[in-house]
Records
---
Amino acid sequence: MVLIPALPYEYEIPSLDRVALVIIDMQRDFLESGGFGEALGNDISQLQKIVPTVKQILDTFRDRALPIFHTLEGHQSDLSDCPPSKLQRGQNQLKIGDMGTMGRILILGEPGNNIIPELQPLANEIVIAKPGKGAFYRTSLESWLQEKNITHLILTGVTTEVCVQTTMREANDRGYECLLVEDATASYFPEFKQSTLEMIRAQGGIVGWTTTSENFIQALSFSGGYVKNNKLDMSFYE
Ligand code: C5J
């Protein structure tokens, strides 16, 4: 068992073979200069700040050979998987499928739709292309998790209140125990991130738990990754 100091109370992983990392949409479209996110007038530095922390969590999973899923928000080039409502949303701005500085916006296989170089998946890591905000909608994620007998998901990525929160809610409704790493998720709007963290862990963890990367990495490093009856440091929250 691994116990991780978290809010609203300790997050318990019964055994490390039940846990997987989900990294949401750390793609060039959202994080890099000239991408879709910046074209919409967003401050991409808010998202870029978390890259080293997401990499630390990724390395923690890689070191222990635990399952890793990367997601990408993107559509088929003929836009057949993009509902008209999503396609038409917004005024006087670039739209999905338009040509941007990194190829067509949010189209699978375009340069901007790639995961940023710092977090490039390894060959044994699973990349889930998703047409929606949630990673369970019209994807193979749930069957992968069932095949690997995963019950506990560690969530990171962007943006906290859109694709990360949607995925966490979808997972929660399907019975997964979800932990969001606070400093490994970001929004273009810091106040939206803060509200999302609070709503996730409100009412006794109605959607799940939140913790810091330090708490998570430290808890996994005890006794080679397993913690039994240890007194963990909760001082971050005091
Ligand atoms: C958005 C996402 N914000 N990955 N996508 O459109 O959160």
---
Amino acid sequence: MDFKIAVIPGDGIGPDIVREALKVLDKVASCYGHHFSYETLLAGGVAIDETGAPLPEETLEKAKAADSVLLGAVGGPKWDDVPSAIRPEKALLGLRGGLGLFCNLRPAMLFPQLASACPLKPSMVEGGLDIMVVRELTGGIYFGKRERTADSAYDVMAYSKEEVRRIAVKAFDIAMKRNRKLTSVDKANILETSRLWRATVDEVAKNYPEVALNHLYVDNAAMQLVRNPKQFDVIVTENMFGDILSDEASMVTGSIGMLPSASLRGDSFGMYEPIHGSAPDIAGQDKANPLATILSVAMMLRYSFSLPAEADAIEKAVSDTLDQGIRTADIMSEGCTLVGTAAMGDAVAANVR
Ligand code: IPM
Ligand code: MG
């Protein structure tokens, strides 16, 4: 089959890791008889440098016309002092909002080969960790009205019932395909948006009698994630709580350089990116770990292109590469072989069967 992928390498290590992900995709194409075409687009700091805007109109239009988007990373200290309206992060929000990607999936899993990197006691993660954080991505305080005067400021958090309903449906659907356990996180003891959230999630729950649903306040959820992460299967929460909890969940696995993400909407279109940042300090030095981006491409094959066997093949290739003891610096441990970004991409591509 033919697929058109908009490729946005972005800043810092973005181009380094995206290159390796495309290498792996090309191997999948030749093994399975598909054709992927790539169109490279500008966004983030590089776009500010070249066009003055973090998300050029052309990028958004061409992304809309593609079957899916692969994004590396955006931002870096070079653009820390630009006005807030044109910060590189605006490119991300513009893509999420402009493409309508309301459903953000952030799996936090422990790779058994990297278990020693987990900061928790081994007894607490016995048998592995596999949490799916479902973050609402186009509403709430990220997209509300905001204003700043000389000595005051506000940011509005607003949700419509429909915005909550559609993300809840996604989360229940995912829970049905996993262990049928869903935790909805809010601050319903304080926030009106959270009371709407909780009532709406309860309503949606009536259609999913097989899913065990519980509600947690966000402060408690943050605590439970380090106290007993194994109690979680799928977590669904609003935009900012999801931003914070997904960072926490990823760190709990100790594999932050390994974790992919997908941003989806109602149809098959999606945007895929590693959850880590642009690591400008090691950009262009063949040091970055491309595995999170490679695993993001696996999510693309699964969620946007309905190619589960090909997605499995990439995930298996990553696991086999770890089994071979091949490691980039960030996941290096004794007795393993240290490689650079390109060699890691080569190894995974070679392992795709
Ligand atoms: C993330 C990031 C972004 C967010 C920033 C860079 C805008 O932290 O994807 O989690 O806050 O959503
Ligand atoms: Mg974040």
